[in-house]
Amino acid sequence: MRKINELNILVIGEALLLLVVTLGILGYFSHKTLKQEALHNAEQTLEGTMQHIDNILLSVEQATGNIYYDLIEHLNDSSRMYTYSRKLVESNSYIDGCAICFRPGYYPGKDLFMAYVHHKTHNSNNPSDLIVSQTFANRPYTEQIWYTRSMNTGWIGWIDPLKGDCTEDEPLVTFCLPFNDKNNKRIGVIAVDVAITQLSKIILAAKPSNNGYSVLLGDNGTYIVHPDKEKLFNPKIFSQSNRNAHPSELEAAKAMLAGEKGMKEFRRDGSDWWIFYKPFSPVKWAERSSIEANWSVGVVYPENDIFGLHNMLLYLVVGIAIAGFLLQFLLWRWIIRKQMNPLKMLAKSAQHIAQGNYNETLPYPERSDEIGLLQSRLYKMQRALQGEVSEAEEETVRLRLQGEMMRAEYEQVIDANELKSSFLHYMTHQMVAPSESIDSSATVLCIKGDSDEETKGKEADNIQRKSQTMVDLLSHIAHFTATETKKGGKS
Predict the structure, then answer these.
(1) Under a CB-based contact definition with an 8 Å cutoff, are residues 175 and 194 in contact?
(2) Using DSSP, how many helices (H) and how many strands (E) does the chain show?
(3) Are 157 and 147 contacting, i.e. CB atoms less than 8 angstroms apart?
(4) Same domain, 52 and 165
(5) Residues 173 and 59 placed together within one structural domain of the fold
(6) pLDDT in tens, 240-299
(7) Which of 27, 217, 352, 430 is the most buried if burial means most Cβ atoms within 10 Å?
(8) What would the pLDDT profile of 62-107 be if each residue is shown by its tens digit?
(9) Which residues contact 113 (CB under 8 A, 6 or more apart)?
(10) What's the DSSP call for residue 129?
(11) Please, what is the Cα angle at 90 between 85 and 92, to 5 degrees?
């Protein structure tokens, strides 16, 4: 039994080792593959987020381009500039306001000219809420970066969010498009504003995961898209309110501002997060101007969101593997027991036979393998032993009966000898009195020889009688001895 248990342990141990090695290799490569797939999906989501943002910006650029060429044809009509601004704001729901500004003194009698139309509330698309104004913020537009940069260099693109004193009450990103007169001389700038709170709301509505979100950073470190509205109003990402962030989070922000592409793991509020980031690159095509926007876009995931499915699959694989091993263990144990049952029965029968149970009933072997061969040989051996044991038992019975008969005869002999001894002792004792009487009468005759004849005759008669008695006793003894001698000869 101990050997069989050791065999079970050996077979199951080897199978377990093979299973563990197989699962280890499978787990390693599946973990590697699933992780790469999860990272690839995150990168695809990042690419999709960037395209979503670019589509919004492109729609604003196209709407601006739709009025550009007509505006060039009517530069001398200053009142028409308000119409262009209004139409542009009304034509695109993403646009919060539009300003068409000319260089100082372009229109006679007007030092500065700005046709600025914007929504009264930044999240409203109602045309009745539009406000017409000739100023923006608390400084002349000629001192503001969105005008000076495009006017001085001919730069076309999106500037970083205007916050604080550079805007009125809502952070804005502005698309700047300078325009020239018929003499190809730069005379003004079209500035189209998009409220970053509204842009964030639109972008964040398409969540990359259940708990993930998208971010868009400007070149100067300001947030353009972020789920926390307070961060949209902060001057920069490294402002005082963000200095208590985990160093790994600040490292990720630095990498984004450096224009790098990649991914980083960081900690926030005791949890692990991942950010995938790349420089924002507007789609380039033939009819689109060379747009500049030195921004960086990223998608942020809690680790469980990006690797949750992977971990669940990993746990599922491990669970299935454990369940499969248990089932396989039970199957192996059942098969081994089934295969070892005949051997166990054979060992048990051999042990019983070795203990002297030669009449142990063995089933006739029906197997044709090695165990069946052992059963057949043990069966033949047991049959042979059973025959020899039967003969030995019969001989034992015969010898026992002979012994009992000899014991009975011996006891009879003892009894006969005791009877003879008793008889002889008795007869000898019967002869004592006659012999003493004869001795007494002889003594009288010898001593008293001169006694009278009567006395002598009396004593002689006594001697004769007693002698006859002794002769009779001796005759009896002789007859008993002859009879016993005959019995002894017959036996």
Answers:
(1) yes
(2) 9, 11
(3) no
(4) yes
(5) yes
(6) 455 566 677 778 888 888 888 888 888 887 888 888 889 888 877 766 666 667 788 888
(7) 217
(8) 999 999 999 999 999 999 999 999 999 999 989 999 999 999 999 9
(9) 78, 81, 101, 102, 106, 107, 134
(10) G
(11) 105
- Three-state DSSP class for residue 364: coil
Position 383 in a domain = no
DSSP three-state, residue 213: strand
pLDDT tens digit sequence for 339-379 = 777 777 777 777 777 776 666 666 666 666 676 777 777 77
3-class state of residue 360 by DSSP = coil
What's the total number of domains in the chain?
A: 2
Give the span between the Cα atoms of 413 and 170, in whole angstroms.
Answer: 143
Look up the CATH number of the domain holding residue 419: 1.10.287.130
CATH number at residue 172: 3.30.450.20
Task: Give the distance from CA 75 to its chain's centroid.
Answer: 75
Based on its alpha-carbon atoms, the radius of gyration of the chain, rounded to whole angstroms, reads 66
Residue 89's nearest CA partner among 61, 118, 65, 116 is: 118
Q: Are residues 305 and 417 in the same domain?
A: no
Structural tokens at position 98 = 């539009």
Give the position of tokens 């380039």. Answer: 284
C-alpha dihedral over 283, 289, 293, 298, to 10 degrees? -10
Domain residues for the domain of 440 are: 404-489
Are 110 and 227 within one domain?
Answer: yes
pLDDT given for residue 3 in this prediction:
55
